[in-house]
Amino acid sequence: MTVVSAPGKVYLFGEHAVVYGEPAVPCAIERRATVTVEPRDDSHVRVEAQDLTLDGFAVEYADSPDDRPDVDVPKPLLDAATGYVDAAVEQAREAADAPDAGFDISVDSEIPLGAGLGSSAAVVVAGIDAATRALGEPLDRRELADRAYRAEYDVQDGQASRADTFCSTMGGAVRVEGDDCTRLDTPELPFVVGFDGGAGDTGQLVAGVRSLRDRYEFAADTVEAIGDIVREGESLLADADPDSDPSAELIGELGELMDINHGLLSALGVSSRSLDTMVWAAREAGADGAKLTGAGGGGCIVALDATDETETSLQYTTDCEQAFRAELATEGVRLEE
Ligand code: MEV
After folding, report:
1. Ligand 1 environment, Cβ below 6 A
2. Locate the Galactokinase N-terminal domain: which residues (predicted)?
3. ipTM rounded to 2 decimals
């Protein structure tokens, strides 16, 4: 039995624009997906998803996804438990040169699905790592990140950047611009997450931005402006001492950029009423800045606030189902057992 976990993430800046080659800065957070893999004697794949819903469920199928039985669960859940796991299995089989390898796989995630916290990337990263280790062919982190990106790219019909999967593999704060992925040395930022209990469809949201960008030059300019925000934010982070608490001035400046970033994402049509409500609740509670995180459409916002005010206020906001402080996960993918 091989057990591997990988963290989720929030975007400090740059989601969506990163798909078009602009830079982005996602940060791994201490909420993990854990994948347990046991090789089988046949080529079947059995996926069991625990804690993703109250009940969880299990499906078993031979190597063609067409063999999957019908399961009465919401699509994001089914995709997480089968689509992304299938893609991870394919990558592991290819990497280990074991096309007929079968596995019993169990997914146990603390990251809400489709909510902008990188649940699918964490499942894919942990899944490929666990399966290749179980086959005796562990991958180095760069290859793991690359294969995890290819798995997400396949599931999302060619609409994925390397940001989520690289961040989940490496941990910490990272910078992604096209194929260029690096880790950043940043101070610990006071992230607060608000979750509306919902989810967005990443593929559809990315397609919506693409359509606006294709039709309107000003939408393409908006995507470029998000890139400018990221460059501005990066230079603030580069001047900060990674080993000290961030200054109030730094948090204020980063927060201002987050607010502008949210406005531009909203202009591109990827916010929602509940995300906007949570963003405003955070700002009114005194957060230095707040924005949606991830693909949008529903799910999570991230705010910067060193006090408890934002978390408390979000907990009393009707549109917010859950609020929590998110610590930076300095460790990325990790072998648990
Ligand atoms: C989704 O978490 C982030 C997006 O930028 C898509 C991607 O980068 O693959 C919307």
Report:
1. 15-16, 18-19, 160-161, 163-164, 202, 206, 294-295
2. 3-39
3. 0.98
